[in-house]
Amino acid sequence: MDPVVRMQELAAQVLEHRRRYYVLDAPSVSDAEYDALERELRALEAAHPSLADPNSPTQRVGAPPLESFLKARHRTPMLSLDNAYSEAELREWEARVRKGLLGKRPLFAAELKVDGLSLSLRYENGQLVEAITRGDGETGEVATENAKTITDIPVVLPKDAPERLEVRGEVFLSRRRWEELNQQRDARGEARFANPRNAASGTMKLLDSRIVAERRLQFLPWQILGAGDHAKAMQQLSTWGFAAMPRKLAGDLEAMLAFIDAQREGRLKLPFDTDGVVIKVVELALQERLGTTDRVPRWAIAFKYPALQATTLVRGITWQVGRSGKLTPVAELEAVAVAGSIVRRATLHNANELERLGVRVGCRVFIEKGGDVIPKVVAVVPGSLPEAAGSETVPTSCPVCGGAVAKDYDTEVAIRCQNPECPAKLEARFLHLGSRVALDIEGLGDALAEQLVASGRFAHPWEVFELLADASQGVAFLAGLERMAEKSAQNVLAGLAAARTKPLARWIHALGIPFVGAKTAELLAEVFPSLPELWLAEEGHLMAVEEVGPKVAAALRTFVQQHPDLPDRLTRMGIAPAPPAPKEPSALPLAGQVAVVTGTLPSLSREEAEALLKGLGAKVTSAISAKTTLLVAGEKAGSKLSKAQAMGIPVQDEAWLLSLR
Asked: Do 253 and 299 belong together in one domain?
């Protein structure tokens, strides 16, 4: 093959695989396969240096360091945007737009607002000649050499592009790359990047573009300056080699509101950070009629979601004891709003993480929720550590009962209270029993769990069901607790009564067996349809169940040995868990299949896809293993797709799955 043609093919493949890995978070080849493509391209370029394309992805390694950045004025100012935080504010903005257009209803376009650094790219005769950061909106810094290292920015445009073109967009860092960089900085003892935006902004300010190239920044466009139709212009950019973000092109305000609602949760699954949605009038002529203020365009507005990250003060560090006895450090925070809720506490996970982050009482920290429900500390705000701050002390005894603490395994990071009668462990087990993922018992929250333990009446959480033996006495006992009225006591007893026949899988999970989560409990219930059968199962039989390995099987057998008569005790308390519904697997199309679902499917949620697979006779697990026979994959499938392909496991999509119904 002609070496030039092969180099062009390889360059296109390398760029596409980089985009799939860093932008879509959905690699279609293994790391080894990608490395082989890049090595072949580099080898060909080395063998034919005169034929090598200077714009090849392998050539974007940066130029020698600059002494300083030059300043340049924007030919058209890069204005800010007005913000809206509610539907009502968006409707008020639309009313102002219609008033400015004398009642005309314009078409709008909406696109995600990437949380990064704005950049303006100027092309002449198809060549990138200048890249200017936003700066103060009037004047920015010339960062052309840095921009050329970003593989999402075409250095040369196709022949159908206009002679002069200015493209504006956002430079950002993917969350995956941000985590990789922070791991490297941890290893070097350097301060962590608090978030991807700070990392991207700091990177673009580096004078050495060779370091910029190593950081692997990315770029998403949001405007062609002077385009007559914004929606068509954005589609055109995708054909010229620019990446495209989730967007809604050309619709009324109702369509834009629907897009905002769809992205409220959907954006959390993207591989990059977003903080809102920008809505724009599509037609340039209407934009010009509406005009701008000295600060913002009247024809565009940013709808902002509740912040996913905030900074706040660490007032203290406490150690929380979980149902397994695990001691977890928790940052006690000055109250701050994050993602629509007030946060006062954030987990620090374990002693190693506490030390790695360097969190100390009196410092300020970045906290975030993102796609997680539980807030977490991301990094310490640089320069905020108190001068006298020392190391945080890891407890040598349980902070609740004073019992000894130790690691259960040499390889384990966590330390655990070794006292089997620790009240904190029992309280956490009560909370787990009544949680939504277990038996979902109304009223069994923190306050009641604490008082049930303090009463001294219960050694194990399931003993609370003994209150049902005599309803009047049960109500009297509960109503006698602090802040528990008779009506509340009756509601708790009603919740307990309803829980007695909850599905067996929920009961297995609710018992608090170490390492047995909701998914494992469900798989166990399918094989052992009653608690007595599960109690009689030997380790070998347990390990034949999907996702049950030696560690889980051993923990299960230990729990059974500690509570040998538990099934009988539960039966005497009127507890009769509902067994899984009987199936005729041989008659179902996916009988005998072991399936995994990964990525984002077009119309089905993960839970809906798994339920459909089960209804078709398949067993569903969460991880790829030697027993897996089927992978159902959607967008952003990630490493599970690569692993399945490497193992020769059949991969199907949502359309195939729906066709089996």
From this structure: yes
Residues 509 and 552 in one domain: yes
- Same domain flag for 268 and 250: yes
The CA distance from 636 to 648, in Å, is 19
Domain count, the chain: 6
Q: 458 in a domain, yes or no?
A: yes
Is there a single domain that holds both residue 313 and residue 300? Answer: no
pTM of the model: 0.55
Catalytic residues: 113
CATH, residue 152? 3.30.470.30
Helix axis angle for 196-204 and 175-188, nearest 10°, is 80
Q: Estimate to the nearest angstrom the gap between the alpha carbon of 58 and the chain centroid.
A: 31
Asked whether residue 580 is domain-assigned, the answer is no
> In 3D, which of 503, 398, 521 has the Cα closest to residue 440?
503
The answer on 247 and 231 residing in a single domain is yes
- Dist. CA 593–CA 608, nearest whole Å: 17
* Positive or negative torsion for Cα 27, 31, 37, 41: positive
Residue-wise pLDDT tens digits, 176-201: 898 889 888 888 888 788 788 888 98
Contact 417, 424 (CB under 8 A): yes
The one-letter amino acid at 82: D
Residue 303, burial from CB neighbour count under 10 angstroms (0-12, 13-18, 19+): buried
Q: Are residues 126 and 226 in the same domain?
A: yes
d(CA 507, CA 490): 22
Instruction: Please give the Cα distance from 463 to 469 (Å, whole number).
Output: 11
d(CA 553, CA 573): 27
pLDDT band at 524 (very low <50, low <70, confident <90, very high): very high
Pairing mode of beta strands 274-281, 300-304: antiparallel
Q: Is the sign of the CA dihedral 114, 119, 123, 129 positive or negative?
A: negative
Domain boundary among 271, 304, 337: 304
Strand 309-321 to strand 364-368: parallel, antiparallel, or no bridges (unpaired)?
Answer: antiparallel
Greatest distance between any 2 Cα atoms in the chain: 92
Mean pLDDT value across the chain: 87
Q: How far is CA 169 from the centre of its chain?
A: 24
27 alpha carbon, distance to own chain's centre: 17
The candidate with the shortest Cα–Cα distance to 462, out of 429, 487, 485, is 429
Tally Cβ neighbours within 10 Å of residue 286: 16
CATH number of the domain bearing residue 462: 1.10.150.20
385 and 267, same structural domain?
A: no
CB of 307 closer than 8 Å to CB of 337: yes
Which domain-ending residue is among 268, 285, 304? 304
pLDDT in tens, 348-404: 888 888 888 889 999 999 888 754 457 888 888 888 888 777 777 889 999 999 999
Report, as an integer, the average pLDDT of 520-532: 91
Q: What is the domain range of residue 32?
A: 3-59
Read off the tokens for 311: 């900074």
* 412 lies in some domain: no
Cα separation of 290 and 463, whole Å? 70
Q: How far apart are CA 206 and CA 371, in angstroms?
A: 31
Same domain, 120 and 222: yes
